[in-house]
Amino acid sequence: MNHTTGAAEDYLKTIYTHTEWQSDLISPSALAVRLGVAPSSVTEMVKKLAASGLITHVPYGPLALTDAGRLRATAVVRRHRLIETWLVGEMGYDWDQVHDEAEILEHAISDRLLEAINTRLGFPAHDPHGDPIPAADGTVLRPPAVLLAEATVGHAGSVLRVSDRDPAVLRELAADLIGPGTEFTLAAALTIVLADGQSRLVTPAAAASIWVTA
Amino acid sequence: MNHTTGAAEDYLKTIYTHTEWQSDLISPSALAVRLGVAPSSVTEMVKKLAASGLITHVPYGPLALTDAGRLRATAVVRRHRLIETWLVGEMGYDWDQVHDEAEILEHAISDRLLEAINTRLGFPAHDPHGDPIPAADGTVLRPPAVLLAEATVGHAGSVLRVSDRDPAVLRELAADLIGPGTEFTLAAALTIVLADGQSRLVTPAAAASIWVTA
DNA sequence: GCCAGAATTTAGGCTCACCGAAACCCTGCT
DNA sequence: AGCAGGGTTTCGGTGAGCCTAAATTCTGGC
């Protein structure tokens, strides 16, 4: 009733992260695309997760985590993000290179090793992309944020997070020295002015990946 | 023809380590016991490994690695031992606590991360138990060694390795400050005298786990 | 040289996580 | 209201890796 294998954890994690920065529930087909599996595989796993009380699902409807499911999901996300932070902070990885490694290690590391890493890093609150690292009890501290692509011209603030979905975007932004904490003003659509007065043109893909202070 | 999953890697690793400090080939049933699986499971996997050219096996006979199999096996052993060394050297583990964690991580870590760890550690030649860490090309440097239980009284030398099979033995020896590098003289069966003149009584289990300079 | 008992293999089955194809349900458009 | 098309589920099937029970083969002791 309770074990949650690596595959199930991936489903829970993906359902969780889908609603982390926007509020619509995920559909089975969207989940299939994100996980790279066939829709029928999703149906099957959804049945198991619902039977275990980790998600709720009415046939032909969207998916939602239960409290138990959210706890399990945040535990996986916590692992993933602590590992990413560690890879960048101690192991010489760049922020566009950590995702795949963390994807695998998050299912392999013991709680003990995870806490040893957490301690070495000084209990970080965010990963290299600016995503909040859930606490061990599942608590997540997430500031209000707007997508740069949807911010109004004139908006001033700082970068909160950059989605790690597209490594090319991450490399582009790293080259432009833009990352979590960068302060800016939106001078025109896709044009930001940094604190030192330099302006940067961001691609539409980047603008759709950058979340800034509301 | 070539993938080698985690399970297959465990079979290869176990076949390899069985002949590392003694020279008789392993039998299918011994392999089953070590891996904790049924004999029939061994038969099945053996068939696959033989078909992939990683081991040789005549029906009802013992198992032996081919050159390709040995290369694959030493790669896994290399991972395992580097991870153990890292857990002890940087993550605050004791030498009796690293085995299980390494057992899992050895199948999850990427080559890149492994080399990052190797570099941080300064390219160690031995793990915390004194086992040699194979080079990336499969080369292993193993000094001639005798089991303490089989050494003649009067034998003087130093501890080369302690088998990590039995954590209780490792804890016992750690309490007695005995480990790889410890110099001693065998004063009587199960009694050793250390460099500082102190003598120690070792249990039969420990004497059967300690390998010393020949 | 034979044969009992141990080791090994075969045979048949199980679970997990996946697949493609076919059936089914729902919605939006006419 | 009816229906086409897309989303979802069902159905039958696959490969890994494991199991137990039932052959089969080998071997040591007489």
Automatic annotation (TrEMBL), chains A, B:
Signal peptide: none annotated. Keywords: Activator, Cytoplasm, DNA-binding, Manganese, Repressor, Transcription, Transcription regulation. The keyword DNA-binding applies. It is found in: Cytoplasm. GO terms for cellular component: cytoplasm. InterPro entries: DtxR_MntR_Metal-Reg, Fe_dep_repressor, Fe_dep_repressor_sf, HTH_DTXR, Iron_dep_repressor, WH-like_DNA-bd_sf, WH_DNA-bd_sf. It comes from the Bacteria. It holds the Pfam family Fe_dep_repr_C. Gene3D superfamilies: Iron dependent repressor, metal binding and dimerisation domain, Winged helix-like DNA-binding domain superfamily/Winged helix DNA-binding domain. GO terms for molecular function: DNA binding; DNA-binding transcription factor activity; protein dimerization activity; transition metal ion binding. The keyword Transcription regulation applies. Residues 1-66 form the HTH dtxR-type domain. Its main location: cytoplasm. One of its GO terms (biological process) is negative regulation of DNA-templated transcription. Belongs to the DtxR/MntR family. Homodimer. This is Manganese transport regulator. It comes from Cryobacterium gelidum.
